[in-house]
Amino acid sequence: MSGAPVAPHPGSAQKSPTTPAETIFEARGVNLRFGGVHALTDVSFGIRKGELFSIIGPNGAGKTSMVNCISGRYRPTDGKVFFKGRDVTGTTPNHRAALGIGRTFQNLALFGHMSVLDNIMVGRHHLLKNNFLTGPLYWLTGARKEELAHRREVEEIIDFLEIQHVRKATAGTLSYGLRKRVELARAIALKPDLILLDEPMAGMNLEEKEDMARYIVDLNEEFGMTVVMIEHDMGVVMDISHRVMVLEFGKKIAEGKPEEVLADPRVRRAYLGEDDVEDDVPSASSPPARKEVA
Amino acid sequence: MANVSIIPSGDFKTSYAADTTIFPTKTSRNFAILGVVLLLACPAFLDRYWLSLLIQIGYLGIAALGLNILVGFTGQISIGHSAFFGFGAFASAWLNNSLGVPVALAIPLAGVVTTGVGLIFGVPAARLKGLYLAIATLAAQYILQDFFGRADWFTGGSAGTIAEPLTIFGFAFDTDERYFYVVLVAMVVMYILGTNLMRTRDGRALVAVRDHYLSAEIMGINLTKYRTMSFGISAFYAGIGGALYAHYLQFVSVENFTILFSIQFLGMIIIGGLGSIMGTLMGTAFMVLLPEVMQAATKLVSGTAVDTALNLRENIAFLREMSIGLVIILFLVFEPDGLAHRWKQIKAYWKLYPFSH
Known about the structure:
The structure holds two protein chains of two kinds.
Chain A: E1 23-34, E2 37-48, E3 52-56, H1 63-71, E4 78-83, E5 86-87, H2 93-99, E6 101-104, H3 116-123, H4 143-161, H5 176-189, E7 194-198, H6 206-221, E8 226-230, H7 234-240, E9 243-248, E10 251-256, H8 258-263, H9 265-272, H10 274-280, H11 287-293
Parallel strand pairs in A: 3-8, 3-9, 6-7, 7-8
Antiparallel strand pairs in A: 1-2, 1-4, 4-5, 9-10
Chain B: H1 16-19, H2 26-45, H3 48-73, H4 81-99, H5 103-125, H6 130-150, H7 152-155, E1 161-162, E2 166-168, E3 171-173, H8 176-198, H9 201-211, H10 213-218, H11 223-249, E4 251-252, H12 259-272, H13 277-301, H14 305-310, H15 316-334, H16 338-352
Antiparallel strand pairs in B: 1-4, 2-3
Helix pairs in contact in B: 2-8, 3-8, 3-11, 3-12, 3-13, 4-5, 4-6, 4-11, 5-11, 9-11, 12-13, 13-15, 13-16
Pfam families (chain A): ABC_tran, BCA_ABC_TP_C
InterPro entries (chain A): AAA+_ATPase, ABC_AA/LPS_Transport, ABC_transporter-like_ATP-bd, BCA_ABC_TP_C, P-loop_NTPase
Protein name (chain A): Branched-chain amino acid transport system ATP-binding protein
C-alpha cells in the first residue's frame, strides 16, 4: 500500500476540521420512495474530505437507506448524489467501489465459505489487474507477482486490525466481533476515500466497542479516509465524530458538531426521548410547548 | 476444526509465496506428483478396458470441472451441461472435417467456440436465479439438442459424424494406450488452470458472487459480467472435454447428449463436492467406477439365493441407474459437502490420531 497504513494523512493534524474543507460527497435533495413509503424526504448534506461523519436517528429513520444511496445499492427516486464533484447518481455499486467508496453492512455480509484472507483479497478486486485469462496462467503472466504484492498489503491490514490468528479460518465460523472486524478489513482493502460503516459496533461488548472505535479513529486519522458511520451508541458517536447528522422519518432534522446536535431540542425529542427535554432544557420549553410535542 | 487443512508442526511458511502454493504441504504435493507418475505408467500394466475407464474419467472430469466452476463456485445452477459437452465434440469434428483444422488445434478451438455458445446462453441466464435459471438452462439443453438433430452440415444429423484421431507430426493417437496420455496431459493442464483461476482475482470474484452477491457488488464486482463469464468458462471446459471425447471415440452421434447426461454431470460434482476442484475428479471417478463396482457386486451375488429371488442379472442396467440415484440421495443426506470433504476428514483423523483436538 503506497505508504497508507503508516504515513499519516496530511489532514490528520486537525482533529475536527473547522475550516470548510473540500467536500468529498454531497447529497442534493435526495428522495427515496418504495411505493407509498417515503424512506427519505428531501435530504441534502455534504461530507467534507477527511472528516468523521455520523448519521444517527431512531430505528427506521432512513439511515441505512441513506448509506445505500451513497454506496449505490439504491438509486434515489429524486435528487442527486455527488462524489468528488462528480454526479454518481446513476452509477452502479461496483463502479462506485472503483471510484473510492467502500462500506460495511449492518448485518454481516462476509463471504461465509471463503477464508478471512480471501475475503479481504476480494476487497482488492478493483485494484488487481489479472483476469480470467492471465490468472490461470499464474506463473507466466505476472499474476503470481501481483497476487503476492497485494497479499502483502492485505497482511498489513490484518496486522492493523489484529486478526492475524484467524487469517486462514473460514469466515463463516468466526465469532460476531471478529466477523465485524474482518468486514471492516475487507472494506479497508478497497482503499476507499470514503468508507461507510453501518453500525460497526452493534452487538459488541464494551471492550470490543473500544477497540472498534480506536480502529475507526485510526482509519480516519492515519489512513486519511473519510468515514461515514451509522451508530446507535451515542457515547461513541459523540466522542469520535466531527459532525453528526440526525434523521427522523426520512427527514434531516439536524446537522452539525456533536455537542450542537445534542443540544438541539428537536433531536432530543426525536431521538433521546421526551424525558430528556424535560430534564435538560427546562427553561427552553414552557409546559404548553411540551403538550404540543406530545 | 477437522475441516481445516492440517500443517505438520515445524512446517513454517516464511514467505507469502510459500503460503500460496496449490498444495498446502510438501507431502501433499509429492503425492500428487507421484499420482501423475503412476498414471503415466498405467498403459504398461493396465488392460484396454481399464484404460478406457481412466480416459473416460479424464474427459468427463474436465467437463465436470467446468460445471463445478459454474455450480459449485459461482452458485449458478445448470442442467444443460451435456449440450455444451456435445457442442464441443461436434465443433471439434466439424473444424477438422470441414475446415481442415488439424485435430491438435481443433480441440482447443472447439473449447473457444463452445465458450461463445456458452456466453450466448449465459447472457440471459446471468440475470436469472434459482428455479428460473434451472429452467433457462434446461431450455439451452433442448435448443442445442434440437440443433444437433437438425444441423446436418454441422453434426451429420441423425447419422452422426466421424472424428479423425488426433495426429501430431504423423504420430496418430488412435489406440487407448496412446490416447490415454493425451487425456492425461489435457486433464492435468486443465486442472492446474482451474486451480490457478480459483486462487486469483476472477476466481475469488466468482466465489464472492456465490457467497454474498450484494456485498460482492459493493466490493466492485460486476455481477452480470461474472455470472456470464462463469457460463463461458464452464462451456469452455465442457467443450474441451467434449472434443477429447469425440477424438477418442472417433465418432460423435446426436443422441448421446441428453438431459440424463447433464444430470450425471451434476451427480459427479455433488458427490465429489461442490466448490472443490479435487472433489470434481473424485466425483467423476466415482460416477464412472460405480457401474463397475455394481457389476462386481452382481457377480458376487449371482447364483446365490438373492440372485434367484430378485433376478439381478437381467436387471443390472436398471439397478445401476437406481444405485446412482440412491447414492446421490445418500450423499445429499449424509455428506452434502461431498467426497472431498470426507477425504479431508479422513486425513485429519489419521494425522491427529489418537487425539483429535
